[in-house]
Amino acid sequence: MKQVIRIGPFHPLQEEPESFLLTVEGERVIDVDAKLGYVHKGLERLCQERTYDMIPIILERICGICSVTHSVCFCHAVEDIHGVEIPPRARYIRTILGEMERLHSHLLWVGLAGHFIGYNTVFMWAWKYREPVCDAFEWLTGHRQNASLLKVGGVRRDLPVDSFPAVLKVLDELEGQTKMLIGAVLDDPVLAARLKGIGVLTPEQVLDWGVVGPTARASGVKTDARKDEPYAAYAELDWNLIVQPEGDVFAKAVVRLLEILESIRILRQAIAKFPPGEIDCGPLHVPQGEGIGRYEAPRGEDIHYVRSNGTNMPSRVKVRAPSFVNIPSYRASCIGGTISDVTITLAACDPCYSCTERLAAVRRDDGGPPLSFDDLVRLGREKTRAIAREMGRKPDLGLEIRP
Amino acid sequence: MALSPVFLKALKRSPWVFHVGTSGCNNCDIEIADCLTPRFDVERFGVKLVGSPRHADAMLVTGPISHDLKGLVQQVWLDMPAPRVGVLVGTCACTMGVYKDAYSVAGPADKVIREIDPAARFVYIPGCPPKPETIVMGIVKILEAL
């Protein structure tokens, strides 16, 4: 007998409002659907009424955890239009901020994953280890998460170099604690029983659904914007891409835990090589044109598209957050599991709904159906052609994910 | 609203809160969860995060309220038994912050809730996001003010 279970929008499982419709047969899930849209704030529209200097501050508030991600990604897109090279010191500052963010985001996920399977000890431990990272972020930038440090063409303020020894001490402690946590997670029979073989995504499914980030890397797909198209200082530093072949929730946890160690490695090198010099390349006039910014967020690859009409405000800012492509993969990973496994499978891609909700569906006045998928594809193609005509270039963006 | 002394004592010793994460950026929600973890541990004041508004004395609201969520937030408020108090965590919940001009936002939480309950009482904890210490201080101040 089929039954539909509705979870949400306010439920104790996840912090943000979103609801899921699970169609179940007995205990087995045969269909899953997500109703989003509660967190839509219209930020892209807001950006069209703000100057380039104000936008990184607003985009920082897309998502609390990816605050560095979205502002850096926007800066990448605008710098792509301008073609400017930012100074080395600014590149290293962006690297340090991005990796600090990855540290606290991955620790947050490990804790929440423990909480979702009812293992609150992991939740408390991981969040206890996260606190010193937030402290270090505050020593470096003056704020625990929203640093407001990014601007187009560099960064706004320099990092206090005298706080580096204290930050390195935090990293040393965190390395030991993470190794302990990895040992505890890998050896724990309870975690293995709850997580192994659950919510499996095969490499083919990863490519079909366009999944990015640790969720894809846990299925053996090597995708990482830091390696594919190195930005900031990543090309000058020595670090490894973490890939696990299994594709289940356990592999996703292992990928994130090992990435914490890689982030610590990157941070140590970035602090050791921290170059002198300017942090900003001065006021920029953004010419007419369009640009794409890529950035590897803790959850996967983030893409921003910016179109400039030559004034001091962009005429279009488009945000494609990693959760936007990871959330639809629920249909591949959840179906066939039991209800008790769905909670952790839904959380396994570390979904961020405030990042995702860039779209509002509007019903027509005559009560007709909203646009169908084919309509959207047609409108998208028409718009791409119109932009290409306006810009006088071919609509070829040359983006692809390599298997 | 007059409360019996026994009731007030019970409420002050252990206020149970229900967390309504609205359309904000998720950051205040994380800081609220941070308050429950070992360093800050608000449970030592008897503050407990509960899973249903019917068990709650206070509603923690983070973020501005979108048109989609407005009716749901009002419903959650009415589901809480009186006496109830709203705790607005973060600048967006207090005044809407950077989302002030956004088209999809219905208003700050106090305005939305006062549409259905004009006598509703609120505590404002500004900050973007407020540090966990600030949230703990806000909660202690509510308990003193009751």
Notes on the structure:
The complex is a heterodimer of chains A (403) and B (146). Chain A has 403 residues and is α+β, with helices and mostly antiparallel strands. Chain A has helices spanning 43-47, 55-59, 67-82, 88-116, 120-141, 164-187, 189-195, 203-209, 214-217, 225-228, 249-272, 322-326, 330-333, 339-348, 353-356, 373-391, and strands at residues 2-7, 19-25, 28-35, 150-151, 154-155, 289-297, 300-308, 314-320. Chain A has a domain at 44-322: Cytochrome-c3 Hydrogenase, chain B (Orthogonal Bundle). In chain A, the strands form 3 sheets. Chain A has a 3-stranded antiparallel sheet, with no helix packed on it. Chain A has a 3-stranded antiparallel sheet with strand order 6-7-8. In chain A, strands 4-5 form a two-stranded antiparallel sheet. In chain A, helix 4 packs antiparallel against helix 5 (120-141) and helix 5 (120-141) runs antiparallel to helix 6. Chain A is globular. Chain B is of the alpha/beta class and 146 residues long. Chain B has one domain (14-145): Rossmann fold (3-Layer(aba) Sandwich), CATH 3.40.50. Helices cover 38% and strands 19% of the residues of chain B. Chain B has a 5-stranded parallel sheet. In chain B, strands 4-6 form a two-stranded antiparallel ribbon. The longest helix of chain B is centred in the C-terminal third of the chain and has 14 residues, at 132-145. Chain B is globular.
Structural class based on helices, strands and sheet pairing of chain B: alpha/beta
Roughly how many Å is the radius of gyration of chain B? Answer: 14 Å
Q: Biggest interface and its residues per chain?
A: A-B, 39 and 38 residues
Major β-sheet of chain A, in short? 3 strands, antiparallel
Count of separate structural domains of chain B: 1
User: Strand tally of chain A, please?
Assistant: 8
Q: What is the level 1 CATH name of chain B? A: Alpha Beta
Per CATH, the superfamily of the domain at 44-322 in chain A is Cytochrome-c3 Hydrogenase, chain B
Q: For this entry, what is the oligomeric state of its chains?
A: heterodimer
Helix content of chain A: 40-55%
- Please give the CATH architecture of the domain at 44-322 in chain A: Orthogonal Bundle
- Radius of gyration of chain A from the CA trace? 21 Å
Low-confidence stretches of chain B: none
Helix content of chain B: 25-40%
